[in-house]
Amino acid sequence: MPPIDPDEEFDLIVVGSGNGACGFLGECLKHVPEDYRVLVLEEGDNFFFTSDVTHQNGWSKSYANGSAFTLHNAVTPSGKSVLSGRARTLGGGGSINYTMIHESSDWLVKQAGYDVDYWNECKEELNASLDRPDPLAAGYQTPFADFIAENAQQVGYAPPNKDDMIQNIPSLSESKSQSKRLYFFPTQFDRFGSRTNSGVSLVKWQKIKYRWNTKVVGLEMDKKSDSTGIACNGVQTRNKQGEDVTYKVKKDTGRVLLCGGSQSPRILLNTKELAGNEKIGQRVNDHVCMPLAVYFVDKDKASVVGATDNYESLFADMVIDGKRDKGEAKTVVNIDFFSGDVLRLIYLISSLYLCYLPFNGFKRLMGRYPIIFKYLSNTIRMLLTAIISIIVVLGRFVPFLPRSIKVTTALIKFNASKEGYYERVGDKIILRFFEDDRDYDIAEEAINKNLAFLESNGVKPPFFIRYLFQFLTKIPYKRGRQVKRYVRNFAQKTLLSEQHLAGGCILGDVVDKGLEDSAKTGQVFGTSNLHVADLSIVPLPRVSTQMTAYLMGHHVAKQLYSTKKNN
Q: 117 CB contacts (<8 Å, ≥6 apart)?
């Protein structure tokens, strides 16, 4: 990294380089002068050092990479561990995952203000910058993804609708006439699997300075406060070598922007001048993530299942009505699909399936000491790889054993009914999964209604494999009693999140919506130059969160730098 003069002052210091930061910088840098000095601080690695495992051919390796992915110390109020993590690399989650779907503009109006036309305009601008092809075009989806979509439509899922798309990226529909709908989304890859159109591609990195492997340990706040609020003068950091460095912003004109996602609420809680706001760290949530049964790909389909099927670029979403007498809202349940050679999916399986470890105390240790997660997932991966390789080799000589193993599976995800919070001291995040009976009802209904559809995508494994799989995980292959047993077991022993933590710095509670003065958009109440622009400023979206995070960054930058009113 090129040196930075210790006396240098910046117009803008951005803490974190994830989806929110990329969306913000992509818009901000269009409107500032050439001499506008920007510094980005990233706790994880430079994307240069992690891009090899985020290629489409090996993106699931990111979950076994301790540099690119790490766990939260997340538990339920009763102390049950929740396997929940976050990206830690330049580009954030957009450098690991690649789902592309927006929350509805109606939802955004409720959470952040403005009107539907404004949010559609923001989506238009952001989506145009990402420049993705039409996922509904003939030949874009793989043959096996088309097969899954056909099976979904056979059980009542409405086909993808062009009306749900803006610049080729879908938004969640608020249609009351369709409770089950398919969405095709474009990936971030070119035809050769290189990640060419993610958040990193939004930013002109040559115009800014950035530091990676640099952890923010505190904010340097001015000792005096005036009528505009207390100012943040700089950001205190510690690099990989253990050296402490404080980076400064220009007095009176400089801004500090928090874009650390799940880390932004913790930074504010650790800033004593701000900790008096009891709403910091509240209204936190993540998607409950429940893996479903694994099926073998039918022999007639095996030849068309390839590496690009590892994460199918489609969602099946269904709306489950709440009980009116209890005042329950509708819940959106998302289904994600994964297919391919089991050895290609092994990184994902060996990491996410750690939630099925029998000892809750040991899983809590993984949250406190993420290196345990890294080494344990790699150990399980090597054991599974050895077992599968032996089966494949024996398959050349034993007629009833397969010569290769291609599987298809899915998971469901939905918002937990009760929001959680950050403990104000320490590093614990409390997620209230299955604190409400509504979560049990949603999980059971979603699984029971989709089991036959999921089985139509493949064939059940042989009995002895299925028996062993169910013994270890309780994941059902039959509706009814098996589903109820799995949901109860998952809620008590094997909690897993979708790694989509949101909330903690909610607009209107912790930061300004900017509706009266656009220059205050995202500004932390009680401060004059400290802003937040990431997924922590909104409650958890009902769909995959990546595009909403980009959009929050884009929105805050648009209000601060390109909106004329009151700036």
A: none
